[in-house]
Amino acid sequence: MSQQTPVTTYYLEMPDPEQLRGKPQPPELTVNEAVLKEFRFNRYLYQLVGEPWQWVDKLTLSDQAWQEYAERDSLRTWVAYHRGAIAGYYELERQSDGSVQIAYFGLAPRFVGKGFGGYLLTHALQSAWAWDRPRRVWVHTCSLDHPGALGNYEARGMKVYNIEED
């Protein structure tokens, strides 16, 4: 019988936009909102960015389930491009309690380690705060994620408010 490695999940929040410690935009990196919603694009981004980190939860969803998820008014998607290639993406989800969650965030494998994550997270936090003035912005990450993920969230000004061990 194989023994599973315990997974630690970190919940972080930013209750005030003044806490944001931004990173400057790298040359030739642009970030655009996917205003025209297309669930197949969200599914592709999820696979592209999540594959190295075992993002598998949504891979078995039907087209209808993906469409219901990705094309809701409460979900917005931004994509980072570097020289025409998809460098990463993030999704923001407006919550019923007046907060905004960074639902998914990450870089495409070939762009990890190039200094894009700090700016993309800065952009995500700025976009979240600009969306109907939320009471807070939050995210969760886990020990299966990129080793620099937690540090990036904290470096941008987010604070851990809960830790769970599975």
From TrEMBL:
CDD domains reported for this sequence: NAT_SF
Short name of any one Pfam family annotated for the protein: Acetyltransf_1
Domain N-acetyltransferase: 29-166
SUPFAM superfamilies with a match to the protein in the record: Acyl-CoA N-acyltransferases (Nat)
Protein name, entry field: N-acetyltransferase
Originating species: Microbulbifer flavimaris
